[in-house]
C-alpha cells in the first residue's frame, strides 16, 4: 500500500488515503451528533444542555487520545516509508503498553471526579443531573475510546485508511439505532444517549481488535515487542505535544462554555448545537489535516519532500472550496442548519446568530488544519502545540470574555473570537516558515 501512496499521481494518492479518512471522520461526527439530534427531537432542553456539556467534556478525553495516537501514526508512517520493519513492530508493542495505562488512568479520574467536573462547568441547575448521568456512563467506556483509536492509528500508520472507516460505520449505526430506542421510545433523555454512545464505542472497538488480531500487521510481530521500551518515549515525543495541545484547547472550549452558560439555558443549548454543527462544517479541513500527518510521514520516510509539499497544496484547495460553500450558507441563513438539531425556535435563532460570525473560521482553518498536518508529519509537533495555545489562551479566551461584557451581548458577538484567534495562529505559522527556511531543511 505504501508504494501506491508514494508512486501514484500526487492528487490521486491524496484522494486514495484522505477520502476514507474523511468519510470516517464524517461518520464519527454523525454518531457523536446523533445524541444531540435525537435528544433535541425527543428530550427536554435540559437534556440538550446536559448532552452538550457532557459531550464537550468527553471530547477532551477523545482529543487527548487522538493527539497521543498521532505519535503512533507518524512513527509508523516514517518507518514504513524507510522500510524499518522491526522498528515498526516494536512501536506497536510499546503503544499497547502505553495506552492501556492511559485508559485505566483516565477512567479512574473521570469516574472519581464526576460531580466536581459537572459543577466546574458552571452547568445550569436544570441540567446538572442530566450532565452527571451522561458523564458517568460515558466515562465507563473510556477503555473503548482509547482502544479503538489505538487500533485505527496503527492501521493508518501502515497506510490503511479504509478499514477504520468500517469500524466507525458500525459504531454510527449502533449509536443511531440505540439512540432512537432509548431516547425516542423509552424517553431516557441524556442517560439513554450516553448508553447508546458507549454501546457503539464498545462494539466498534471489539470489532477492530478482532480484525487486527485476525489479519495481523503484515510484518513480524512478537509478544516480546509488547513491553516498556524506547519506542514509548518516541511516541510521547511526537504525540505528547499534540495530546497536551488537544487537552488545553478543549479546556479552552470548556471555559468558553462556562462563560456562555452564564447567559442562560437557551444560550447553553445554542452553543451545544453550533459546536456539533461546526464538527461537520470543519470536517474536510480536519480530516485532511489528520490524513496529511500520516501521508506526509510516509513521504518524509521515503525522502520525497517535494511530493509532500504538493500534497499539502492539494489538501488546502479541497478544504477551502468546501469552506466557501458552507460559510456562504451560514451568512445567508444559518437557521437552515441549526434547526437540524433542535425544534426549539429560540435555540434555532440564537444558534444561527452564533454561526454568522463563527462560520468565518471555516475559511481560515482550511489553511490552519492542513498546515498543521503537514508539520506533524515532519514531527514539528511542538510548534503546532505552541501556536495553537498562544492563539487560544492569548486570543480566543480573553476575547470571548471581553465580548461577554458587552451590554446586551448576543452569541453573534461571542462568535467573533474564533476567527480572530485563528488569524493569530496563521501569522505565527507564516513567521515560522520564513524564519526556519523550510525548503532548505527539506533539501
Describe this structure in words.
The protein is mainly α and about 450 residues long. Helices cover about 85% and strands about 0% of the residues. It contains 20 helices and no strands. The protein is globular. The chain starts with a helix and ends with a helix.
**Span between termini:** 26 Å
How many helical stretches?
Answer: 20
Provide the β-strand percentage band: under 5%
Average of pLDDT = 85
Q: Which class of secondary structure composition applies to the elements?
A: mainly alpha
Tertiary shape = globular
Task: Determine Rg (CA atoms, Å).
Answer: 21 Å
Q: Can you give keywords for this protein?
A:
443 residues, mainly alpha, 20 helices, 0% strand
How is this fold's topology laid out?
Layout (H helix, E strand, L loop, with lengths): L1 H6 L2 H33 L2 H37 L3 H28 L1 H7 L7 H12 L2 H16 L5 H23 L3 H27 L14 H32 L3 H17 L1 H19 L3 H29 L1 H4 L6 H14 L1 H18 L3 H24 L6 H4 L2 H20 L1 H5 L1
Helix pairs in contact: 2-3, 2-8, 2-9, 2-11, 2-12, 3-4, 3-6, 3-7, 3-9, 3-10, 3-11, 3-12, 4-7, 4-10, 5-6, 6-9, 7-9, 8-9, 10-17, 11-15, 12-13, 12-16, 13-15, 13-16, 16-19, 17-19
Summarize the structure.
The protein is 85% helix and 0% strand.
